[in-house]
Amino acid sequence: MSYLVLARKFRPMTFDEVIDQKHVIVTLQNAIKSERLANAYLFAGPRGVGKTTIARIFAKAINCAKGPTITPCNQCSSCIEINQSRNIDVLEIDGASNNGVDHVRNLREKLKYVPSHGKYKIYIIDEVHMLTDSAFNALLKTLEEPPPNVMFIFATTEPNKILPTILSRCQRFDFKRISQTEIINHLRYIATQESITIDEDALHLIARKADGSMRDGQSLLDQAVSFTGDEITGKSIANLLGIIDNEIFFRATDIIKKRDQNEALNLIDDIFVNGFDLNEFLSGLNEHLRNILIAKVTGSADNLYTTDAYAKRYLACSSDFSENDLLRLIKIASDTEINIKRSANPRLKLEIALLNMLRLDNSKRVDDLLDGIHELKNQLMASNITSAATTTSSPDVEKKKVSPTDPSAGSVITAIGTSDDEAGQNIQDVAEIDIVEIKEKWHQFVDDVKKNKIALGSFLNEGEPSYLEGDTLVISFGSRNGFHIKSVMKYAPLLETILYKLFNVHLHLKCIKGNAPSTDSRVMANYSENYLSQLTNRIPQIKTILEVFDGELVR
To answer: What is the pTM of this model?
Structure first.
């Protein structure tokens, strides 16, 4: 058979011809120049990115008649024999079919023979991770103390399956996926050399399907030529490879923008009728949404691996969605892609996912709510909200006020309408305090206590501020923490001082075992209800937040 497939016909013969693995090439060339050659190398990376190709070129560079050299001549007998896979000093071994301990023992027997023509006897073992543990162990001693002029080059797609003891004896090189741009450029070069007419859509579809593998891209181009002849279009490639056309993804995002449920179900029906793989559709939709997101974030289509026509459409489409919308759409598609693999009814999963995308609330509303929460926080910190206890009592009675300068260190200043009101106004630094504010800053109070006495702060962590009795703060410790009460009350003066520094009021402490009395619980429930009513009246965003997130006030 005289025909040579494109992957072999256009296989690189020198380091300069290798595509997109510069970090590996430069290191190997420097090692050759300085004659710092290791006894074992490990080439790890995805399939079809040049591992065995570079291993061959490296072997030629070492054993070339003009070498060691970074530019093997490809004309001497050694280079020609290596290119034709018949050099007796450079042996290529398939690790999958020669993976037993006996194969390794036979290999070790041959190591004692010196190279026939070249400077090194080089063993290239492909898919080395397929060797058994016994075979690896048989190779250990040889790798640690190899005979002179013997070199091993291992290639693998799964380095995680190789024993650590083997890895530690090799210089490891990690190969990367080849970029779509490099694949497209190289396929365009091959098409020119082979007099093949191929449009940009076809090149992009092949590069996307190749998924970073140059060999896969070349094989797909070979297959396309067999299918369509010397004129290849994007449509013919899509039909050949079963690739979903980009127009379907643009149709999907247009449906999401319009929130058209009927059209969404029609789209899913078309996907099934055409026999498209559901995972491939979701994967393609994810990539499509990613392109829109990149165009949205950067305001440019320069970083998109697509044709100029599609790049302009992505840029135009980016104005229809917010960044948060796109992130949430990508999450739905990604989650569905995972769930659909183990579903007995994948069509239902896809229908639910697409309908959820249609019902996606506008992110702008959520952003407004978040801004409202931030505004709420600022307002709460800037001013105190009138206590709900005031609303349940006489309108003429104001909230209790405690003066930090009162001689009784916490006595209650009487309310508006009494004869003491004027005296209350003359007292300096009058501060208002309620149990909600104390609860909000309780952790801060405990932290301040720990700075003085760590153990005391730990005891307080077991307690909870329950309610105020005049100028007395009642702390409940539960039914099992009676021991903590005695320890806390022993240091009551210290705690009251820290409370004063934090809240700027004088409060006495009272500790109780168990929870707050049931009557107080009813009072606090009413308090919470009235407090929430005041909050929603004063700051309308709270009501919206509670409705959207199905929230409740937690005290």
So the answer is: 0.61
